[in-house]
Structures are given as structure tokens and as C-alpha cells.
Amino acid sequence: MSDQFTYRELRVFQMNWTCPKCQTGSMLADSSPGSMALLSDPPQFRHICDRCKNVEWNSVKYPTVSYRAADTN
Fold this sequence. Notes:
Layout: E1 10-15, E2 17-18, E3 26-29, E4 37-38, E5 44-49, E6 55-58, E7 64-69
Antiparallel strand pairs: 1-7, 2-3, 3-5, 4-5, 5-6
């Protein structure tokens, strides 16, 4: 390995978005055929609650993945 790079151990997490309306469901990015993104800056993606069917928009497609250093909580 090269001395030009440093490495550290990471932990991988799945991040879910809890529905702001029912507080129990998860907001999932709409992957149905013909689903669209709002062409704003940044783009907004349509999400639908898996429980109450609430619709919200977000610039991140949930669920998503997050990384943290293994030596932190």
C-alpha cells in the first residue's frame, strides 16, 4: 500500500426516514414506472409512506446508506 493514503475502519448503517404524518411508517423513494423527480436544485425525489401512503419530497432517496468511523458511537 502507498503512504499517500490513510485508512480507517467504517461501520455501515441503513438510514430510514420516518413518516412525518403517521410517525410509524417509513418513507420510501417512489420507484414505480414513470415516477419523476422535481427538477429543482437539488432535485427532489417523491417518497411514499409504506403505512399511511403520505407523499413527501426529499433531495435524498430513502432508505439510504450512511458510514461512520468504527471508533465512534
